[in-house]
Description:
Elements: H1 5-18, H2 24-37, H3 44-58, E1 63-68, H4 74-81, E2 89-94, E3 101-106, E4 110-115, H5 116-123, H6 139-144, E5 162-163, E6 166-167, H7 171-175
Parallel strand pairs: 1-2
Antiparallel strand pairs: 1-3, 3-4, 5-6
Amino acid sequence: MKYAPDDYSRAFLKALAKTPRQRQGLLVKRFWAVIRKNGDLEEAEKIIAAVERLLVREAGGRWVEIEVARPLPRPLLGTLTRRFGRRDHIDSAERQALIAGVRITIDGERELDYSLQRKLARMFTPLDPGRYGFQAPSETEFLTGPAGDKKGESSNQNKGLALQGEDLTGFASASH
């Protein structure tokens, strides 16, 4: 692709704003001729979508995508779409990969994901210790307790893990 869809859309809308109404049809024909000449005609859908998104934003609206796992009843879809403004463009699509629930994306940036797919992914994804501000203890630290104080000596509370009065410090070497 010679130019990105967003570049085409910005150039087109800038030219459209300067073109008198009676000549806008000619502008559209020339616009598509340039796209064809650049070999980007196969990307026409992306270019059209970029123009639509830019028009919505210039009108003060948002581009809203609502994805559901199963078809929503019309009254429920209507209630959901009424939560947005008249200037907003709302697309709805069925995505069975969500399994259940809904995902709403606003302007391609903010996402409200209430899908079962997300919940399952979170349940089966290991925690990233850095993300939550802690570092998981090593096997040795887990079995023997945290490192000693600044002098290199262990404090009484750090001598090892105890379970009902029994010392577990030798458990690691005995089990391997």
